[in-house]
Amino acid sequence: MNPEIFEVVVRSFFVSSAAILISSIIAIPLAVYISLKEFKGKKIFLAVINSFLAVPAVAIGLFCYLLFARNGFLGFFHLLYTAKAMIIAQALLAFPIILSLTVSGLQILAKPLRDTLFTLGLSPLQTVFSLLYELRRQVVTAIIMAFSRVIGETGMTLMVGGNIKGETRVMTTTIAMETMKGNFELAITLGIILLSTAIILNIVTQLLLGETHAPAM
Amino acid sequence: MSIILFLFFMCFSPNEATLTIATTTSVEDTGLLEVLLPPFEKHYDIKVKYIAVGTGQALRLARDGNADLIFVHDKEREEDFIKQGYGTHRHEVMQNYFLIVGPEKNVEALEHKPLCDILGSIASNEFLFISRGDESGTHSREKLLWKTCKVLPSGEWYLESGSGMISTLRIANEKQAFALTDTATFLSHRDELQLHSYTEKDSLLLNIYSIIPVNPDKYPHVCIKEAEKFISYILKGEGGTIIKNFGKERYGKPLFQMMWKP
């Protein structure tokens, strides 16, 4: 494979995986907590979380751009046009997806399972891990859905990353640029890689979910 | 193919004539097209669509028959374009200079130095330089400058944005790096950029924009009549006056100098 393509593919996977990892570390425990805890206004809270799924990526891009620009609130970190900025923006995009899908997975089973696990005499922490284990399919599905969403994101990634060769150039931004330039060969190669990634991930998701569930999105 | 058919119908649709211009980002980023096109559309009753991309891409669009007229700035490639039969004539319209811009902290060391000394210092000190890297007119001039000055632009310090002029300037601004830009784009966004202009007027930096109609012998569907009207609007009509005065009010001096006397 052309080393330039290889580099771009590796960077794409690295950036999006890092974003998903950060997002998952925060979103999954939060999802477990929300599912297990009964509190006032929980329904509204869940509705708000679900509505975040509708936030357009480009709005997150704008938000991050303004935040990270040199004269922005976090300008002194010099994050704009770096891979770090791309990871943060993608993590923000992934967060509501992982949270919402995990919560909706947990919601169905949390109560009866929790009672069962509790009667087994498990500590709260053990309960949480057993819950996550029982619901691993839903959790993995949430993560994969979020991953395929962020790795295919173009506009937002371009806004905060800048498509700098060797630093922030990823599959989607390269495809956009090479198509504009008229270099369709490179664009098509990357397009096929991106498309296969999305298809494979989706098949894995559906297999994990089994036949009882329709595809999540 | 579908695009060609589409253009074909657009051009000869009975209600409204159209003209598709492929042009360079610097002409759009400055806001020139916004003031240049409406009077033309109104006067000639022609709808203008423009695609603002790098010169390399603009030439490619025209080569594929997807534009009626190009408005670009890369003499060598324009001449090739005509030689290969894709364009009819090259009309030089306006000019300004390219500039090397960079962070203010290097002003003392580099300002007023000859062009090649500046490029040489950037490379030897490994100051960050953001290249367009998009085969645009500015990018091909940048490559020519490195070659002329016998400086090899490669290493950690040399980055390629693969984006338009203003995106590249914004990246240079964020990273406090050097870049080659056309005067017009730089001046029209000067307020938001903490970058200093390092170069003087130098014949190597002369930046000429020209318009070329796409050859109807090559692509019979091109709107050649509309293209000719646009050219006479620029060269003989109101268009020239608009270009000549463009930017005077806002920037104190015009962003482009006309290359002919009306």
UniProtKB/TrEMBL annotation, chain A:
Boundaries of every ABC transmembrane type-1 domain copy: 9-205
Chief location bin: membrane
Membrane topology: Multi-pass membrane protein
Transmembrane segments annotated in the record for this chain: 12-32, 44-68, 88-109, 139-164, 184-209
Keyword match Transport: yes
Subcellular location(s) per record: Cell membrane; Membrane
Gene3D superfamilies linked: MetI-like
GO annotation terms (biological process): transmembrane transport
GO cellular component assignments: plasma membrane
Family recorded in the similarity comment: Belongs to the binding-protein-dependent transport system permease family.
UniProt keywords, alphabetically: Membrane, Transmembrane, Transmembrane helix, Transport
InterPro entries: ABC_perm_TupB-like, MetI-like, MetI-like_sf
Protein's name according to its UniProt entry: ABC transmembrane type-1 domain-containing protein
TrEMBL record, chain B:
Signal peptide bounds: 1-17
Domain of life of the organism encoding this protein: Bacteria
Claim: Signal is one of the keywords in the record: yes
Stretches assigned to the PBP domain: 16-236
Sorted UniProt keywords: Signal
Protein name as catalogued: PBP domain-containing protein
Lineage, broadest ranks: Bacteria, Candidatus Fischeribacteriota
